[in-house]
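Action item from last week, closing it out:
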Amino acid sequence: MNLAKISVWKCRSQELPIGLHPLVMGILNVTPDSFSDGGKYLNRTAAVSHAIRMVEDGADIIDVGGESTRPGATSADIDEEIERTIPVIAEIRPRIKVAISIDTMKSSVARAAIEAGADIVNDVSACTNDPEMADVISETGSGVVLMHMQGTPGTMQNNPQYDDVVSDVAAYLHARVEALVRRGIARESMVVDPGIGFGKTVEHNLRLLTHLDQFGKDGLPVLVGLSRKSFLGKITGRMVNERVTAGIAAMVFCIMNGVDIVRVHDVKETVDAISVIGALKKAQED
């Protein structure tokens, strides 16, 4: 079923425009063990300052996460995840106008974050980890990112296998969208994410990134998160904090192939790249 693509992503009181320019979701990990910046923003003051800086650099969304989903990660305790994320969200909400996202698989964390001012739930399990997550999203009218992941963060890179990674991921995301529509979540609140690096080899990631058109067939915006990920390191030989250029190159490719939202660590560099793409497209049309 091909549907006309939505032009607004409805996230509680926020309505984020889709199609005018790619939206930038800035990553704020308040964790001790995330793969790129674990521990760097565990201190609340540092986390709040970084969120404000990302908004100043042009972020459209701030994505706050209190549980690492890197390969091999173990699940955080609910109380610990709440303690890490909610005070940060509560403090930044009155200080920024852009949308705030909570990166969690747990409904109780999502509800607390929304009560503190979050607008979006970014659920790497596509609302399969917690049966009550769909109710939280439906009841609050929050936006939701539905991501594909094979396995769990602890197991996902243990020899991932697919019949055809593109069709398998697309079919999974379509099924999750339809299931959540039946649970009362509006299509206009949903975004899909093929889950780069979540139970995928380098070859799987490259296949997904070169067939991005397959993930917007439900008419929903497509988000891609590939910033600093290990497949970029395997391609370039660079360590995690040396992958900015590789990530920007991949992100530009995604935008040129229709991605609507990019989730990144390096907001300023991403916004600059998007500005250049926009200028070039405008010059091409004139």
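Closing note: The mean pLDDT is 92.
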